[in-house]
Amino acid sequence: MKTFNFIETKRKYVVEVDGSFFYKNKRTLTMDFTKIEKNPSPNVFYDFTVISDSLEAAFIEFLGFRKKTQIEKNAQELYNYKELTAFFSSDAEIPTTEENIRKLLYYLNSQNWGGWRMPQMDIPYSANQYLINGTLITTIRFEQPILVGGELISKFKLGYKGALYSYYNL
């Protein structure tokens, strides 16, 4: 029995076993692992550890773990969406706090721009949604700045961090 440590990156799976490293491209359907000389991500913690006889069996167990965690994540996101929908469904004016702005950004980001029902906040605002490099970005601009982390900020965003630098990323 060997211990297999898995790291998942954007494009590949990396496996460490007995000090050796292997990777598999996520796009390939085969179980071909390629040996690499050193850890490509030395400061990354392992996502999952499996004790098994073979790399293939360990990888199949890892994929089962990934599927289970994805299902749990989807269930949590659905719960959060229902919670946010309930929070913003009342017609009462919502105080403009950093936490409420974060909730509003998540709420708006979870919907298509055309279906937005804009909640009333105590400071008037406008919101937009962009698709940049395949990532959805939702922005909010308040008519008056609010105090966040010791700074007065009026423009906020949620989503892709490589764009819209004048917006405060929540």
Structural class: alpha+beta
The main pleated sheet reads as:
5 strands, antiparallel
- H and E order: EEEEEHHEEEE
What's the count of strands? Answer: 9
Spatial strand order of the main sheet: 4-3-2-1-5
Helix content: 25-40%
Give the distance, in angstroms, between the N- and C-terminal Cα atoms.
45 Å
Computed CA radius of gyration, to the nearest angstrom? 22 Å
Q: Could you report the average pLDDT, rounded to the nearest whole number? A: 84
> Regions with pLDDT < 50 over 5+ consecutive residues?
none
Task: Spell out the blueprint of helices and strands.
Blueprint: E1 2-8, E2 12-17, E3 20-25, E4 34-36, E5 48-52, H1 55-88, H2 98-109, E6 125-132, E7 135-148, E8 151-158, E9 168-169
Parallel strand pairs: 8-9
Antiparallel strand pairs: 1-2, 1-5, 2-3, 3-4, 6-7, 7-8
Helix pairs in contact: 1-2
Structure keywords:
single chain; 2 domains; 5-stranded antiparallel β-sheet; 2 helices; 9 strands
Description:
This protein is α+β, with helices and mostly antiparallel strands and about 170 residues long. The chain has 2 domains: about 80 residues, no CATH class; about 70 residues. The protein contains 2 helices and 9 strands, in the order βββββααββββ. A 5-stranded antiparallel β-sheet has the order 4-3-2-1-5, with helices on one face. The protein has a 4-stranded mixed β-sheet with strand order 6-7-8-9. Helix 1 packs across helix 2. The longest helix has about 35 residues. It is elongated and about 60 Å long. The N and C termini lie far apart (about 45 Å). The model has no long low-confidence stretch (mean pLDDT about 85).
